[in-house]
Structures are given as structure tokens and as C-alpha cells.
Write a structure and sequence with these properties.
It is built from seven helices and no strands. By secondary structure, the chain is mainly α. The longest helix has 50 residues.
């Protein structure tokens, strides 16, 4: 399978969009499958029928020893249920069921936040402040900030619209950053080619004109320069 130069140029953009939208891709799918909803509806109907049958049985058994025993056990069960709800409520941290769940969500977001912040700082403090890298790390930082807000905000969840908006904006900005980085890379290659060309001019032309090479070394010098030129042409 032949991969054209054009396809090679497109792949980084596709990868950039996939990587950024992957953080929000789960919101593009339904919370529950249609099979689950049907099964849930059937279970609810069955529970209602069971409750009706159980109430009839209770009415029939009222006044019996078994019914009194049932009431005693129900009181104990209700107490245990209230205690369980109290403990579960105490375990909740920032809307998460327990500390483990909270840390499992916070861990990767905090790591992403520190990673993007460090790279953004490094880009700003470097001699060559490449705008493409600034956009890239700013986008990653904004994604981590979005999820940090999601973790610590007091509401149940954020509206789906914001997930969609973030995925679209992130994809566009990262694609633009890849475009800027590609331009910077190509300009660097051009500068490097000019430096190599000037170096070859000096080695092959100027050095001989100015008699920088001793007479006894000229044959070796000419042979060596031809080998270097041949290698350069072979790798062109």
C-alpha cells in the first residue's frame, strides 16, 4: 500500500483531532442502551405486580404470629438501611461515592494539568517561542481545567452542550497548532539546507581558492570531498 505525501501531511491533523476529542467522546454515546431501557421498564412493571401481591399477602396475614415477626424484622431492617445511608453520605467527597473514586478521577486530570502547565512554561521561557506549541499546551491545559471544574463543581454534572463545545474548539485549536508546528519544521529544514549548502561551498570552493589545504594533503582532501558530496547526493 503506497502512502502518498499528501496523506502523510493529513495524518497529524487526524491524530490531533482524535486525541483531543477522545477526552469528550463518551458524551456522544447514550447513557444507557435501548436493551437496558427495555429491561428496566419490564423490571419496574414486575416490581409493581409483586408489590400488589405482597400487600394482599400482608392483609391476609395481619394478626398472625408470622406477621408480627415480620413487623419486628422490618423495623430492624429500616434502622440498618438508615445507618447505611448515613455512612454512604459520609463517604461522599465532592459528589463522588468515596475517596477512591474521587482520586481515580482527580489523578489523571491533575497529571495532565501539571504536564501541560510545565510544557507551557518551558515553551514561554525558551529562546524560540513556537506559537504552535503554545496553542497545543494551552489546549491541553484548558481540557484539564475543564475536568478540574467538573470534579469540584457542586452540581450533579455539566450539560452535554459544554462537552460538545469543548471537543469542537479543542479539535480546531489543536489542528491549527499542528499546522503552525509543521510550518516551523519546514522553515527549520530550509534554514538547515542553506547552512549545509554554505558549508559545502566553503569546503569545495573557498578552501581550495584560499589555499587552506597543504599541497601534500590536496589529493586526500579532493578524494574526501568527493565522497562527502556523493553521500549527500545519494541521500537527497
Amino acid at each position: 500500500m503506497i502512502i502518498t505525501k499528501k496523506n502523510k501531511q493529513i495524518y497529524p491533523y487526524i491524530l490531533a483531532v482524535v486525541c483531543t476529542t477522545a477526552f469528550f467522546s463518551f458524551e456522544y454515546f447514550p447513557d444507557k442502551s435501548s436493551e437496558y431501557l427495555i429491561a428496566k421498564r419490564n423490571h419496574t412493571k414486575a416490581k409493581k405486580k409483586r408489590a400488589i401481591a405482597l400487600n394482599k399477602l400482608k392483609d391476609f396475614a395481619k394478626g398472625s404470629v408470622l406477621y408480627e415477626k415480620y413487623l419486628q424484622e422490618k423495623i430492624e431492617t429500616d434502622k440498618a438501611w438508615q445507618e447505611l445511608k448515613r455512612v454512604k453520605k459520609n463517604d461522599i467527597i465532592f459528589g463522588f461515592t468515596n475517596t477512591q473514586q474521587f482520586l481515580s478521577e482527580l489523578g489523571w486530570v491533575l497529571g495532565l494539568f501539571l504536564y501541560s502547565l510545565f510544557n507551557l512554561f518551558r515553551t514561554y521561557t525558551s529562546n524560540n517561542k513556537e506559537l504552535g506549541y503554545v496553542f497545543l499546551h494551552t489546549t491541553v491545559l484548558s481540557i484539564s481545567c475543564f475536568y478540574l471544574f467538573w470534579i469540584f463543581q457542586p452540581y450533579q454534572d455539566i450539560a452535554k452542550m459544554y462537552y460538545y463545545l469543548m471537543s469542537v474548539i479543542s479539535g480546531i485549536v489543536v489542528s491549527y497548532s499542528v499546522c503552525l508546528m509543521s510550518r516551523y519544521k519546514f522553515s527549520d529544514v530550509g534554514k538547515l539546507q542553506m547552512i549545509i549548502r554554505d558549508l559545502f561551498d566553503f569546503i569545495l570552493v573557498d578552501a581550495q581558492k584560499e589555499d587552506f589545504v597543504k599541497d601534500e594533503k590536496k589529493k586526500y582532501y579532493e578524494k574526501k570531498t568527493l565522497e562527502i558530496a556523493k553521500k549527500a547526493l545519494d541521500n537527497e
